[in-house]
Structures are given as structure tokens and as C-alpha cells.
Amino acid sequence: MLQYLVIILDDTSVAYCHADNPLEERNLMPLETLKKGILFGMKQNLMIQYVFPDYALPEEYASIIESIDNVKIYPIGKKPDTGLNDESEADVEVAMDIPENVDAQNLVLRLSFSEMLKQKDEIVKLFAQGKRINLCITDVEQFADEQIEAYKQVLNEWNTALLDLYKQGQSPQFNLLTDRMMLEKMHNCEAGVSNITLAPNGKFYLCPAFYYDERMQVFNQMNHHQPSSDNSVGDLEKGLDIPNPQLLKLNYAPLCRKCDAYQCRRCLWLNRKLTWDLNTPSHQQCVMAHIERNASRDLLNDIRKVGEFMPEINIKEIDYLDPFDVRKEF
Amino acid sequence: MTKIKDSNEPWKGGMAKNITFIVTKDCQLACKYCYLVGKNVKERMPWEVAKTFIDYVLDHETDPDFAYESVVWDFIGGEPFLEIELIDKICDYIKTELFRRNHHWFNSYRFSFSTNGINYHEKAVQDFIKKNREHLSIGITIDGTEKKHDLNRVYKITEKGSYKDVVKNIPLWLEQFPFGGTKVTISSADIPYITESVLHLYGLGIHEVNINVVFEDVWQEGDDLKFEEQLMQLADAIIDGGYYQDYSCSFFSELIGKPMDPERDNQNWCGAGKMLSVDAAGNLYPCTRFAQYSLRDKDAWIIGNIKDGIDKNKIRSFLTLDRVTQSPQKCLECEVASGCAWCQGENYDAAQTHTVFQRATAICLMHKARVRANNYYWNKLYRKLELEDLREQYEANKREVKPEIC
Ligand code: SF4
Ligand code: SF4
Ligand code: SF4
Q1: Cβ <8 Å between A221 and B314
Q2: Whose CA is nearest to atom 1 of ligand 3?
Q3: In principle, which of B121, B152, B196, B257 could form an S-S bond with B371, CB 3.0–4.6 Å?
Q4: In this complex, which of A221, A280, A281 lies closest to B299 when CB atoms are compared?
Q5: pLDDT by 10s per residue, chain A, length 330
Q6: Ligand 1 mean position, distance from CA A68 (Å)
């Protein structure tokens, strides 16, 4: 069921997930579009998440933006000033480098794999700040099997740091390692299922990445029957129109529906980019998610050596990293 | 010393990897139903491409994608025999390399052809057949009576029918391949000719007629009823004429027309993804139907090329496909679902999005009509056999017609 409406306020709004935003020219969502978008969200009972650019929006936007309860996603250090001071617990700051200071309760840290390895000790320092840290790797498609050991090792080091914090009575939140310990079922991105994105052009997209791709004419294959086809899945005038909506759902993903890497993003955009099918994950995504899953299992076991913790969670031992390799027994 | 493999090793066709060379996109004919929308004379496979491809395949002997017990090397076009010299060279190279590498496919391979039969008698083709006789299967496509055949299978430019040029080669072919089968493809305009065509093919001495309706959305209102009527006529003719004993027609099968269990019967129909095709440019495909020349609306689904090999991410969806995930609800609840086929390439081409997970059901009414006629066939046949006290004997000896999986 749809629950969230992501509104990209400007073409240069901050990228907060796997895909970089390649758009460099400002293109602000017209006020009328914004109003209609908010109205759509209200009528569909959706929580609105605004994605901000790094410049201050014209004054007249503030009151419209605040005409509804919302969550703000913004570039680090660029907290939007809308005249109201009711920041949400769910507000998100997005950084492309280790920030000195995190204002919001949630930080998305977007790093390439190699950057992540380089900054691993700096990342540890973030754990203790009492914020939720979401590390998002921006080049999953480049991940090679030769890097498996390096990934295992860095997660292992982070586990040691997290364990220390648990021992001190803290509850650090770090998506790659602590999410899986708390989950009893899949908790993925769910683009097009629980959330939908509205772009400045007044059209809906599965997520911002699909909008960027359309603008960059990367992969124009959502619907070949219309020669002028694009990536959009409806617009504010006609409403949502997602072709093959069932294929976005977990039940229609033969590998994922049986998988227990519950913390995996299950990124549809990466799926489409790498396997060409929205419901089919790439080797890279599965392997990375399983390394994280297994490391979470280690962390859980280590924490339990110290005291009782999440007794209802059971992460079993497995001997594969890519469910595709065991699909026959799966 | 390496052991030379026993030449009497049995052919393990059931577990064969299917590898297809699209040797040319050219053909003498311009068949009206041909799905190859992008046929052209330019794209002939250079020898270097073929050789690099074979080396790639044989270098990966232990890779799970190639760990099949046997292999079928398939040659298609256009018309493959237009490139008989290249094919001869390819086959020689494959044989030499299998031997030299002591490859597990040595002596467990087939060369397979589907030809229009026009130059079957020519010396180069005949020499090739003699040389590779033990490892060959060749199917000639002939659509039935002269009238039916020439309705579709016409020469390029002149649009003259090709029946006479094909049928003159049938005796030679049957002499060389007495169990040779033919493939007949039925489109809307062909429906009235089904019965006479099948009987005609039997009359030519062809015992196995594999016949399919096209998967594309070509059907007109009322076609299903006409189809049912034709199949019932055919059923009568086969039963009354006693053909059921020695001849087969794939339309009639006891396996079709039953509901299917979502868990037990969840396999994918088609072999795309387990097969591998290469074209003249050295691009690799999960099946030839994913090459650009066979697609109407979509971009080619290229899974790699002979230099870089297969991008395994690009075959993951094919290898995880199952019946339930790709089928609409009506098919899951369908009372006559078994034997209702699909073609992954057509599914992809007709899908609303870029996916192989949306099953096209343009053949729905045609399958239902086939099931009704099929039920009629078996009820009638078994009653006849019972009255003649021959049912047990028939059942003990009957040829099992397996639904053809592409
Ligand atoms: S690890 Fe792979 S199979 Fe499991 S949820 Fe993630 S993408 Fe799907
Ligand atoms: S599909 Fe989801 S996980 Fe992937 S880039 Fe879009 S929002 Fe992020
Ligand atoms: S296409 Fe029609 S006949 Fe075939 S399984 Fe689906 S509902 Fe049944």
C-alpha cells in the first residue's frame, strides 16, 4: 500500500540513495505543481517527504511546503528554513563525505565502495553520536567478487565498535549492521509499492533515479508501445498508472521472496540497470546484502554473549552469498 | 596420457545445452508469417566470429552454464544451408576441438538444422550430410498441401510459391532421415487448411508433424471455433484412417488441457536462458527470439559478446522465471492450463514493460479450442479401440507425444 510521496522540489535536489543526481541546472517545481502534489498526497493519505536542493527556495514556497506534515531530506548543513521550527524525527541529512556535524536525527552517507574503505575509521566515529546512520554505496554495480573479503573485514571491524557501544548500554543504529538484527521480515525500499516520487515536471516516477535516467535518456524502456515513452508512471492530471505493478512486489520476485537478507535495499533501479528486469536482483546486490546479513548475525551473536538481546530473532547460518547460486534448493 | 572417450557413449539429448549459430539473416523465401522482422542479406557470420565463439564455449567446459552432458549445435537463419561452406568449417572445427580438448561433449553432440529444403539436394549440402550423418538432425519445413504451403512460403521478389522446389527433395530427405519430422506453423489464414495439410504430409511419408499456432496476437474473432472444427475433422480423419498407429500430430496429446498445480507445475515453459545464441556480429542472446531481427517493439536482449563473454546478470531473470510469477490470474485458475504454451521472446516483445515476466496470452482461445478437439479425439479413439478390444494393446505400444518445448 502506498504510504509515502517523495516530492523532488528541484532538478538539483540532493540525491539520497544509490543513484547520483546528474542534473546540474536548477529547475524548481512550479508552485502550482507543488500544490497539486500536496493535494494528491492528502487525498491518498500519504506522508510527504520533500527533497531539497542546496539553495534556499523562494519565500513563497515556505508556507505551501508547511501546509502539510512532512519529512525533509536535505544536503548536509543546508537545513531548509521554512519559518517553522517543527523538525521531524524523520528528517534526513545527506552527505557525500564524513560530516563534522549532523543536525538531523538521520544521516544518509553516500560513498563509493573504495571511499567507504578509506573512511572506515571516520565512519566508526559517527556511530556514537546517537543518530541513525544510513550508509549508501553509490557504485554497487562495480562490486567484484574479489572485494568480498575486504567488505567482510570492514563490517567485522565496525561490528567490534558497535559491540563496544552496546556494552556501554547504547543502541547505535547503522543500517548495514543493526537493521537486520531487528527485522523479522523484508524491509526494502519498496519503490512504487509503498512510496512514489513526484518530479518537478508534475509526473510520477518509481523513485528519483528513474527521473534522472529519463532526463539523461539512459534507459527509455518502460513502455515500448508508445514511441514517446518515458520512465514516468503517471502524472498529476491523470493520476498514477504503473504498468505491471505486480512485478514491483516482493511476491513477484522469485529470489527475493524467499530470501532473508531482510535489510537489503532490493533496489529496483539497480535491478533494471543490471539485470534489465525490475524484479530480478543483480549478483552484486545479493552478495553485498548477504555479507551484511552474515555480519549482522555475528554481531547479534556477540551481543548475546553479553546479555539477552532480541530473543525472537533468529538468523540462521547459511553457506551462500548469492541466492541465485542455490536457486534450485531455495 | 589422456583417455580417449568411448565412442559408444550414449547420446544424452535430454540434458543437452542448446547452442545456436545465426549464420545468416538471409533467406530465399519471404514467408508471410515469418517472425524475423529484420531479415536482411548483409549479416552473414564471418568465420572469425564463429571460431572465437566456439573457443569461448569450449573454454568454459566446467562453468555451470555449460555443464550439460550433451550439446546440440543449432544452425538457423534465415536459411542456414545458404551458408553451407561456413557451417561445414564450423562443424569440422567443433569436432576437432572436442577431440583435441578431450571435452566431455566429444561424441555427445548433435548438429541440428531447420531448413526450407530448397537447396537440400545440392552437392555441398549432400556432402556435408554424408560427412556428419551420425550426428545430424534435419527438419524440413513444409506447410502442407501446395495451396497451403504457397499461401505463405513464397520466394522473395517474385512471390512465387516454393512448394514444388521443396517437395522434390522430400524423398531424398526421408531416405536419409526416415524419422524426420516437420514443423507447421498455423496463423489465422491457415486454419481452413489444417486437416488436408496434415494428411498431405502423412501422404508424403512424413510420420511426425509438429504443429503450432503462432504466439503473436494475430487471431480474428471466430478463429477459435474454426480451429476447433478443423481439429475435429482432423481427429476423425486420423482415427477413421487408422493413422494414429504410425503417425503423430502434436496437436493431440493426452497431457494437455488439465488444471495445473501452482507448486508442482511451476516450471517455465521455454528454455531461453539455458540456451545460447550468437549472431554475425558476435553478440550473444538467451535465444534467437531476443535478437533484434526477431523483435517488433523491444530492443535486443544482448547478454554479452564473444570477446567479453556472458554478463551473467543479464540471464538471471531467465533462470529464475517460473510459471506462476509470469502468468496472469486467469491462467493460474485455468481449468485447461496444461499444454498452453508461451514463447519468452514473444512475452518480452509484447510486454508493457521491459520484462520477461509478463506472459502473453494471445493464444488463449486457440488453446481452449484445441483442448476441446483434443478431448474429442481421445474419447473417440479410445471408444473405437475398446470396441475393437485393442485399447490395452494400443496403450502398451503408443508413442508418447511430448509437448514440444522450445
Ligand atoms: S539479497 Fe538478493 S535476493 Fe535477497 S532481498 Fe536482496 S536482492 Fe533480493
Ligand atoms: S529503487 Fe529504491 S533503493 Fe533503488 S535508488 Fe530508487 S529509492 Fe533507492
Ligand atoms: S492463456 Fe488461456 S488457455 Fe492458456 S492457461 Fe491462460 S487462461 Fe488457460
Answers
A1: no
A2: B364
A3: B257
A4: A221
A5: 999 999 999 999 999 999 999 999 999 999 999 999 999 999 999 999 999 999 999 999 999 999 999 999 999 999 999 888 777 889 999 999 999 999 999 999 999 999 999 999 999 999 999 999 999 999 999 999 999 999 999 999 999 999 999 999 999 999 999 999 999 999 999 999 999 999 999 999 999 999 999 998 876 554 444 444 489 999 999 999 999 999 999 999 999 999 999 999 999 999 999 999 999 999 999 999 999 999 999 999 999 999 888 889 999 999 999 999 999 877
A6: 35
Cell numbers for A146: 574479489
- Residue B95: all three cell numbers together: 569436432
Helix (H) or strand (E) holding A292, with range, is helix A283-306
Classify residue A310: in a domain, yes or no.
Answer: no
Interacting residues of A79 by C-beta distance below 8 A, sequence separation 6+: A72, A87, A93, A103, A104
Which residue in chain A has the smallest CA separation from B303?
A275
Does residue A294 lie within any of the structural domains?
A: no
Count of alpha carbons within 13 Å of B122, Cβ hemisphere only? Answer: 13
B3, three cell numbers: 583417455
ipTM summary value: 0.93
Residue A95 CB contacts under 8 Å (≥ 6 apart), including other chains: A75, A76, A107, A108, A109, A110
How far apart (Å, rounded) are the C-alpha atoms in residues A207 and A17? 10
Q: Does A247 fall in a domain?
A: no
B window 291-320, beta carbon within 8 A of A:
297-299, 301, 312-314, 316-317, 319-320
CA–CA–CA angle B397, B402, B403 (5° rounding) = 150
C-beta atoms of A254 and B351 within 8 A: no
Cα–Cα distances in Å, from B182 out to B68, B205, B249?
Answer: 27, 11, 10
Number of structural domains found in chain A: 1
Q: How far apart are CA A77 and CA A52, in angstroms?
A: 12
Domain extent, residue A178, equals: 4-182
Which residues between 358 and 397 in chain B have a beta carbon less than 8 angstroms from any beta carbon of chain A? Answer: 358
Domains assigned to chain B:
1-140+271-320 (3.20.20.70)
CA angle A125, A129, A135 (to 5 degrees): 65
